[in-house]
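G., the chain you wanted modeled:
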Amino acid sequence: MSSSLLAMGVFTLVGAITPGPVNVLALRHGAARSRLVSAAYVLGASASYAAVVWVMGQGAQWLLQTLPQLSTAAQWLCAAYLLWLAWRLANAPVGQAGAQQQAGSQRPLQALLQALLQGTAVQTLNPKAWLVA
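Predicted structure as tokens:
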């Protein structure tokens, strides 16, 4: 039992620290906002990832085994999405004025809630999370 938990913990750590859209956006939140807002973003992303793993464990794996073409299509779709995201990041404006202005114009509770919801949404839509799960 303990070896299974250790293996699962190492797998989760590696999956969490590898580059991906959630980590890039977490870095952005950490650079542009307070620690508390950044922690809310990470909490939302972490809770969402736990939900993705739970859903996959509860039956989505059976669906992928029943329809193997669905797995192949998902891999191609995920690869296309990550390439599109990389292109968007590479062509994004460099200035920070907009991010700092937006972060300063919100009330603290609103900023926390927005970061929590963004983390949840981004991780739920993250194809890497679904493929790893």
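The mean pLDDT is 80.

Shout if anything looks off.
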